[in-house]
Amino acid sequence: MPLQEVTRSLDHQAIQERRCAWTCAGRAMEKLVEDDLDEVERCAQDLLKSVQELKKLKEKEQLSQRMKTFVLELKSSGVNIEKVVRK
């Protein structure tokens, strides 16, 4: 998969995960007002899962950026990337 597609996919996943986190936080606040503490706890756990996933996605994005920079450096040094990839 080309680096641009990887970056786009990671961006899309991050947007979806942020939406999920936002929903969990909102639901937790609603249930806190309703004094449904068990549901607040479940929402908080889901929110933490989303935060952990966002951290993983951020690490993947950073790796993708490093790879992109590395490929550009190789190209600017005159290395034919297609030949390197094939071997």
Topology of helices and strands:
Layout: H1 3-33, H2 37-76, H3 81-86
Brief synopsis:
By secondary structure, the protein is mainly α. 89% of the residues lie in helices and 0% in strands.
Overview of this structure, please?
- With 87 residues, the protein is mainly alpha-helical.
- The protein has one domain.
- Helix content is 89%, strand content 0%.
- Helix 1 (3-33) packs antiparallel against helix 2 (37-76).
- It is rod-shaped.
- The two termini are 17 Å apart.
- The mean pLDDT is 90.
**Fraction of residues in β-strands:** under 5%
User: Which series of helices and strands comes N to C?
Assistant: HHH
Q: Give the beta-strand count.
A: 0
Q: In one word, what is the shape?
A: rod-shaped
Q: Note the gap between the termini.
A: 17 Å
Features:
mainly alpha, 3 helices
